[in-house]
Amino acid sequence: MRKLIPAVFIVAIALFSGCGKSSNNEPSATSTPAGGKKLTIALMPKSKGNAYFISCKQGADEAAKELGVELIFDGPTDPDPARQK
Is residue 67's pLDDT more than 90? Predict the structure, then answer.
């Protein structure tokens, strides 16, 4: 089960990263959702201090900039289950 959740997350990112791209493989800077509002995506790591999740944030920041969405990166600073809840 622990390996399934990250795998699903990676597949979802891969699918969504291809959405909204033009057919000529250039990112569209003017693409907006149907409602005209900017999308906000949240990334909730197990702990923000973990090197793995820090690198995930860097990749998510790059993807958010490319896709023109706002990224929220928030979670506990330590892997305490009570704080994660």
Answer: yes
